[in-house]
Amino acid sequence: MKFMRMLLPALAALALSGQAIAAEKFKIGYLRVMDDAQVMAAYEGGFYKKHGLDVELVEFKSGTDLIKAIVGGQLDTGVLGFTNAASWSSRGADLKVVGGAQHGYHAIVVRDDANIKTVADLKGRTLASQKEGSTADTVLRGVVLKDAGLQASDLNIMGVSPQVAVQSLVGNRVEAAFLFEPQASIAKLVAPVTEIYEIGEVWPFPCMVVITSGETLGKNKDGVWASMDAQREAIELLANKPDEAAKLIAPYFIAEPTLKTQEHGDVPREQVIRDAIASQTFSPVLTPKELARMQEIADIMQEQGALKTRDGSRFDVSTIVDLSWQEARKL
Hints:
The protein is 47% helix and 19% strand. By secondary structure, it is of the alpha/beta class. Helix 7 (162-170) runs parallel beside helix 8 (183-190) and helix 11 packs across helix 12 (242-253). It is globular, with a radius of gyration of 22 Å. The relative contact order is 0.18. The chain has a five-stranded mixed beta sheet, with helices on both faces. Strands 7-6-8-5-9 form a five-stranded mixed beta sheet, sandwiched between helices. The protein has a two-stranded antiparallel sheet with strand order 11-12.
């Protein structure tokens, strides 16, 4: 009896410990852009729960802030631009790119009264883009402007959130913006703007990827993989049932049930988001072609001085890529 009296508290403590472990949240960072739609759809559609995870979504305003949280151990995974993993890894951070998410859709939209017809016409103008060092900013400076014969110093680039970029177009504070979806679609509905360029049509690249820390992958591989299984299922929903997916995620982007537009009156938010989903290419895998493009982006970053290795050598993207999940799933 004495033994049992001593054993019961120990068993109770063990049970409580097990409950604490079971109740521990799996934290996923995301940005409020269509590139991260699979994260929102997986959460709202119950896919994370289906795969055994109790997920907490944590919103960030930039990939720079999100990657800091992964490095600091506040997040388990995040869906964000690959450049963040490259720049932090070059400084010694233990980060892993473990899967794909979305191929780069970035459109340049310009005010109709600005008389801008081509990218080259941006010389001397003001353009709203993402923060310097972001994937969007890297590609803008290293591909879009370069191909048009421009340098970043030839125009005034404002690093702001996509939401602020749209507001700046409406308020005529900028003449152009380099935008993700759904902000590009929203801008074309609420502001007097026209799309003149979309990089996915001329230089497709894996914009958003799934990133985790080496420590998290080592300690909780099952959790990381389960989150990716859920996001893969959400990607299938986005691709095959965009109307259903739009109902799940539309409130993330448009607060009111309808969007007041310039020419079409009040448009249901689900319609706007459905059309934005249709413009995207989501994929949970990273192909050899995409890995090669990621290396190109890393090379651009080094050329721009945004990425520096300790010994000055070329940064090797393969050192931070772990494709064991997609290999195990035979994708």
